[in-house]
């Protein structure tokens, strides 16, 4: 049987007035894979994610998400989980109680909460107030909230931003566990080095354009070094 990618879009483009912020990007995400969307600030990472999530309407481009037309996000969004910015949680409530609130809000089965807490590595700390969490733990709780609906596609916009190295390791381990369950992960960062050991593939963007797409090990060494050490400038 033909394998159908969870995300299969071509020529994804967004213009604001005369400014092109995403320029003809192709994106193919295989089921269960982890893809890093890498690029400096302003490269267009958030805009690409927002187009997949139906928050921004593409100027042009076509394709499917979970088998449904990209132009009809209402048909697939219930199967997608997203962390766009640090979500708003109640500081005085525990991580677990915050998840209870979001599960109720989203109409999700609250029985999944213990499993989600384990998946995001917050077991043992779930009873502590949210305000006592490190930034990395806060991000993982946000990702936990995105997992409550058992999504097949998980979109994470810069979850490692500002997180210390230990917190980053925890986020990477969590992303691996999420993908090992067969979920497809798209994760962005402005630093390839943060994601290089967790991604199956990387999509490198600069000023809206695609600069490289594929496995990191297929990148010519000198080029990989430039991107890893100095970015694209
Ligand atoms: P960051 O890491 O800063 O979030 P990014 O790679 O996610 O960067 P985007 O947020 O997608 O980049 O923004 C890409 C470019 O598009 C930026 O230059 C931004 O100013 C511009 N842009 C985004 N939204 C709009 C909008 N609504 N109107 C005009 N320009 C916009």
Detailed description of the structure:
The chain has 233 residues and is an alpha/beta fold. 30% of the residues lie in helices and 26% in strands. It has helices at 45-52, 95-106, 113-119, 135-147, 165-180, 192-195, 221-230, and strands at 7-16, 19-29, 34-38, 60-65, 68-69, 80-83, 153-156, 184-189, 201-206, 209-214. It has a 6-stranded mixed sheet, sandwiched between helices. It has a 4-stranded antiparallel sheet with strand order 2-1-4-5, covered by helices on one side. A hairpin with a 2-residue loop joins strand 4 and strand 5 (68-69). Helix 4 runs parallel beside helix 5. The protein is globular, with a radius of gyration of 17 Å. The model has no long low-confidence stretch (mean pLDDT 91).
How would you describe this structure in keywords?
binds adenosine-5'-triphosphate, 7 helices, 4-stranded antiparallel beta sheet, 233 residues, 30% helix, alpha/beta
Mean pLDDT across residues: 91
Task: Please give the alpha-carbon distance between the first and last residues.
Answer: 43 Å
Q: How would a textbook summarize the main sheet? A: 6 strands, mixed
Helices and strands: which structural class?
Answer: alpha/beta
Oligomeric state of the chains present here: single chain
Number of strands: 10
Q: What are the low-pLDDT stretches, counting only 5+ consecutive residues below 50?
A: none
Radius of gyration: 17 Å
Shape descriptor: globular
GO molecular function: ATP binding; ATP hydrolysis activity
Domain ABC transporter: 7-232
Organism: Flexivirga caeni
Family: Belongs to the ABC transporter superfamily.
